[in-house]
Structures are given as C-alpha cells and as structure tokens.
Amino acid sequence: MPSPASSSDTSSALYAERPEWKDVTPLPQYEDANPIAPIFYSEEYKDATDYFRGIVKTGEKSERVLELTESIIRLNPAHYSAWQYRYETLLAIKAPLDVELKLMDELAVSFLKTYQVWHHRRLLLMLTGNPGPELKFITESLKVDAKNYHTWSYRQWLLAFFNDDDLWAGELDFVDAMLVQDVRNNSAWHHRFFVVFQSGVREGETERGRIVRRELTYVKQNISLVPNNPSAWNYLRGILDFNNLPYSRVEDFVRPYAGTTTDGSTTDLVDLENPPPSTNAQLPCSAAIEFLADIHEKEGGKDRVLQAIALWRSLADEHDTIRKKYWEYRIREALKSVKE
Amino acid sequence: MPDLPPLARAAHAAHCLRCLQALPDSQIEVDASRMALAFYCIGTLDLLCLLQEKTRETDREAWREWIWEQQTSGRYGSGFRPSPFMTPALRAPEDPYTDYDTPHIIMTYTALLTLAILRDDFSRLDRPGLLDFIRACQRDDGSFCTVPGSNETDLRSLYCAFAISHMLDDWSAVNTSRAIAFIASCRSYEGGYGQAPFCEAQGGTTYIAIASLHLVPHVQAPLLTAAERELTIQWLVRNQHPAGGFSGRTGKDADACYCFWCGAALQILGAGDLVDARALAMFLANCQFKYGGLAKAPGEHPDPYHTYLSLAALSMYMPASALASDQRHAASWTFEPLDPLLNARVETARWARKYIPAPPRG
Ligand SMILES: [Zn+2]
C-alpha cells in the first residue's frame, strides 16, 4: 500500500521548481555590499525563505503556507518570523490543532533547546484549552533531557496558567518519581517547591503545618541517603525561610552531617525526625557545616557566633577552600556584630 | 596550583574576525540574531583592545553602515532588527516595516553597544522612535516582549529595555514599578532568579535581574532587603566549582559564560572580592581552543558568545596573584576595566552614555 506523501517527501524539491508554487513571486533577501557575518545559506534555505518573503508580501494564509513555514523551521528552528506567521495561518484557516500538536511532539524532540518550539506550544494550548495530555508529553520529553530549562518552564507555566485541580492532582507523585530517578536534579527540587509552596497550594488546604512537617521529613530522608546534595540543602533552607521557621528547628538533624557530633549513641534508636547519615556517607558535608554555622549565627550571642566562626574557618581552610574569601567575609561580618 | 598558561589573545581575536567575515550554513540558527553575534565578535576585539590594530578604518566604517541599515521604523516605533533576514531586496529604505520584520529589543541593545564600540556619533539615532518602540514592547504584567505584539517574553527583554533607557538617559517609555514587580516575581527560594515567574534560579537571568534593579534611577526603597542580598550572594558564590568555573544552576556543570553572568552579578552587588579569581582564570585558560576562541568548557568547540563572555569575566577578575608570580605570561592576562551593568568596557560604556542621550536643545 503506498503511504500518503508526507511533507518531508516533497520538500526535497525546491519551491522554485514546483508548479503549484508558480503563482508566487519569490523575493530574495536584501543584503548590502558589506554585510557583517553573512551566512552561506544552503540552496533549500534560500529557496524557502525567498518564497516566504513573497508570501508575507501578499499576505496569503493557506494550507500550503503551513508546508512552507515547516520547511523553514526544520532548517532553522530559531526563525521566529516563520513561527509567528505559521501561528497566524493556523488561526486564519482554522487548521486542526491536534495535527499541529502532533507535529510539535516531533519537533520538540529534535529542537529541545530552541525557545520557539516551546513558545509555539504555549500558544496552541491557549487555543485548545486542553492541558490534560500535555503533562504526559512533558514527562516523556524529560526522559530525553531531565534538566531542560524550557521543558520545566513549560510545565510550570501550564500548571499555573490552567490552575485546574485535576491537573495538579498527580504532581507530587511526578516530582517524587523524578527525584527517585536522580535525587540531585535541582530542576525537580525547584518544581517541588513550586508545587508545595507556590502555585500548587489548593484552596481549603488548611493543614499547612502538616504539609511543612511532611516536607521537612521528605528532605531530611533524602539528605540522609545522599548527604552531599546541594539541591536538597537549598530546599531545606527554602522550607524554613518561606514558612518563617527558625533554622534552629533542624539543629539536631544537621549536627551529625557537619561531623561535629560527640555523642556516639545516636545509632541506637532510629529517630524519624532526625535520620542519620548513611554509613557510607562522605562526612563532614560542607553544606551541613555551612548550615550549622548559619544556625549559630542566627541564634546569636557571643558563644554561638564564635562557634559559627570556627565552622567557617574549617570551610575556608579545609572543606571548601574555593570559597575561602567568602567564608572569611562571613567571619569578618560576624566579628563586627560581636564587637558592637 | 599550576602556572597559568598564556591567554592566546591574537588567536581569540582571529576567531572573531573569521566569524565577522562569513559563517557556514551550519550556523543558520544565527540568521535571526546576527546583530548579537556581531556584538560578541566586535566586543571581543574591544575587550582585547585589538580593534584598532586588527581592523581597518574602512572595515569599521562598513560595519557601522551595516548596523545603521538595520535601524528600521514603522507602526511600533524605531529600533534595530537582527539582520535583513526578513527584508526583501526591493524594499525602499523609507518604507515602513511589516509585522514580520520589526525591530527586536535584544538586537537593539546589542546594536547600540556595538556602535559605541565603533565610536559612532549616534547622529542617525531615531530617539523618539526608539522610545515608542520600548513602550510598544512593555506588557501589562510589567515584562517586555522581544518584538512588539509577540508573547515571547522573559527577563532578558526587560533588561534590554532598562539598558536602552539608561543609555538614552530617558526612562519615560518604561513603567518601572510594574517592571520591578515582575522581576520580584521571578525570584526563587534559592536566592537566584528564573527567566519567568516560577522558574528555576539561573545564573544568566540572575545577572539580568540584579543588573536591571541597579539600572533603575531614583528609587527610594531598597530594591533588595539585606537578607535577600545576602542570600543572592550566597547562591552566586556557591556556583563556583572547585575547578574555578561557575555553573548556571545548582548541581550543573561549570560553563564559561556563567563566569560572566554570576561574576558580574557579584560585582554589581559589591561582592566581587569573594570570587577566587585565580581559579576562575585557570578554568577559562582550559576553555581556550587550540585554534582560537573560547568554548563553554574544556574540550568543547568555541563560539563568539563564550569567547566574549569569558574575556568580559576576566576583565572583572584579573588573576592578580598570577600577575605577580609569573611575569612571562602576565601581560596576556591584563585587561581594561569592564562596566558590569552594561556589559561593556568602561571606556565604551562611557562613550555610550555620552553620545546616546539626546543632545541638549539649542
Ligand atoms: Zn554557556
């Protein structure tokens, strides 16, 4: 059975050679005698953009314009005018948007790092008003690149823009699955914050205290499994800052990771509030030393500040020497406050 | 720590001169942003102080002409387009642009800086038209779009609108309080800023946010609380890796361009002395490509974007200790100072501030 001709089959012939395009006058690009960084265009690109300028001039919006703009986008996905004209054409001819989204599924994978692909998708979703299937698509495309900034921003936009309870329902499980795959994926931690503390907060959710406790437990468990994970430590700070909780609330948890515990009996009882570092953990963990120093500084008083200074000293001289100047700055600032 | 190898200044200049001459078809994605590429190439020559030596006056004259030819006027005001990529050969220069060939706000910012590098007198600048264009780009939420009428918006366009207003010394086209509220909505719990509300903290957009906040004139209330400032500094310095380079996000690999984005944000916050400049220089030394240009990381291919930003980072963070200990290569690591707010050599920024504002009447 012969397969229907797809656009990629026909695009092998130049537009200039195709009889069905004979009525369009191609318009070559303006270029002066001394251009800066001229590009040696391929014949296909020159041909397609000549016809595109011709189409823009007449203002034609038709089925074949979709083919033409697709040709250009495949050669140069950053051609924002081709995207813009394509979008307007879709609207003008009331093209079926499910077909367009299907094409975008493919282009998103080919041009994952191009802003325009994601931008076009947003515009389409605002037209269809059907965000449901998108979450699955995004989850799939994160399998190709789990930290792609555009992909994550698109997911955040989608959730916040439609802000529909059904859409949010599976989000925490999704983040959890992403973090199980890679607990160091900062994009996933960031997304968790967005879900739990920002746009994901649902109306009538009165038990915020319970949610904060749940999140503290969650991040502590993850730190206990992989202590040297800056993303998790930042998330812990984020929870406390956002909810105006004192850092000292997690002092007992942090202490063993800073390698300063003097009490050997902590392993007897498994304390769920304060899961200890795994036995093979590389300690001390510099993020924990930093955290403990921050706790001391925030608690204040001469003794506490001196303890903070000792910790910063150890970071500057031993555990985090690349930031030596930063730790010395913290020491200077703290000393000022003690003297005052 | 091993000795710093020399910085191959002439080779890096040659890399950018080659790109200015012509680009292969593989660079086709630059078609809609050629003005920015021109800025990174000519800017590299400026940072290296090799513009006079490596180019002829006729080249510089031709470049100025090409840039002015991209200034275009129409229903949304005047500004610069990326290149004539949408301009038909037969269009008369005085014809208004179509909706698909409008000025672009990021290209306008880079065009103005490049003209300042080329010491243009800006007598051809359509200032009232430029103000109209900036006005046409601002959206209700305070953000700016890249081209009028588009939904394409992120913090970069906002910074460009601010930088242009600053260079014009005229803020009448911008609703600053809305714009500042938009910046605040991009702040993340980590202390950095994302490219849009709710997005992950990222080094490039954090520079953009911090620089924008410091470009706004006459603001009474401090734009960052002391605690916010400290958290941002903390996040920025944490992005420096033990090998000296900066990453753009928590847990990502180091990349040469973030040496500028994070490094410049720290400079603006008055915390530039907290960076390990020698380690930073060592990382960038290893990003040098053997045939010229700097790459995002050791072993990668170079491009003008990473070349310019690496040298801009070095202009703020000269490895002072290396200069003292190793006289042989010291000269190659010496730069003139950089203005971190505008991202240009101080001398160039001074020129921009002098000639871009409207001349006094009468
Ligand atoms: Zn980079």
Automatic annotation (TrEMBL), chain A:
<keyword id="KW-0677">Repeat</keyword>
<keyword id="KW-0808">Transferase</keyword>
<comment type="similarity">
    <text>Belongs to the protein prenyltransferase subunit alpha family.</text>
</comment>
<dbReference type="GO" id="GO:0004660">
    <property type="term" value="F:protein farnesyltransferase activity"/>
</dbReference>
<dbReference type="GO" id="GO:0005965">
    <property type="term" value="C:protein farnesyltransferase complex"/>
</dbReference>
<dbReference type="GO" id="GO:0005953">
    <property type="term" value="C:CAAX-protein geranylgeranyltransferase complex"/>
</dbReference>
<protein>
    <recommendedName>
        <fullName>Protein farnesyltransferase/geranylgeranyltransferase type-1 subunit alpha</fullName>
        <ecNumber>2.5.1.58</ecNumber>
        <ecNumber>2.5.1.59</ecNumber>
    </recommendedName>
</protein>
<dbReference type="Pfam" id="PF01239">
    <property type="entry name" value="PPTA"/>
</dbReference>
<dbReference type="InterPro" id="IPR002088">
    <property type="entry name" value="Prenyl_trans_a"/>
</dbReference>
<keyword id="KW-0637">Prenyltransferase</keyword>
<keyword id="KW-0460">Magnesium</keyword>
<dbReference type="GO" id="GO:0004662">
    <property type="term" value="F:CAAX-protein geranylgeranyltransferase activity"/>
</dbReference>
From TrEMBL, chain B:
<dbReference type="GO" id="GO:0046872">
    <property type="term" value="F:metal ion binding"/>
</dbReference>
<keyword id="KW-0677">Repeat</keyword>
<dbReference type="InterPro" id="IPR008930">
    <property type="entry name" value="Terpenoid_cyclase/PrenylTrfase"/>
</dbReference>
<feature type="domain" description="Prenyltransferase alpha-alpha toroid">
    <location>
        <begin position="7"/>
        <end position="343"/>
    </location>
</feature>
<dbReference type="InterPro" id="IPR001330">
    <property type="entry name" value="Prenyltrans"/>
</dbReference>
<keyword id="KW-0637">Prenyltransferase</keyword>
<protein>
    <submittedName>
        <fullName>Terpenoid cyclases protein prenyltransferase</fullName>
    </submittedName>
</protein>
<dbReference type="GO" id="GO:0005953">
    <property type="term" value="C:CAAX-protein geranylgeranyltransferase complex"/>
</dbReference>
<keyword id="KW-0862">Zinc</keyword>
<keyword id="KW-0479">Metal-binding</keyword>
<dbReference type="InterPro" id="IPR045089">
    <property type="entry name" value="PGGT1B-like"/>
</dbReference>
<comment type="similarity">
    <text>Belongs to the protein prenyltransferase subunit beta family.</text>
</comment>
<keyword id="KW-0808">Transferase</keyword>
<dbReference type="Pfam" id="PF00432">
    <property type="entry name" value="Prenyltrans"/>
</dbReference>
<dbReference type="GO" id="GO:0004662">
    <property type="term" value="F:CAAX-protein geranylgeranyltransferase activity"/>
</dbReference>
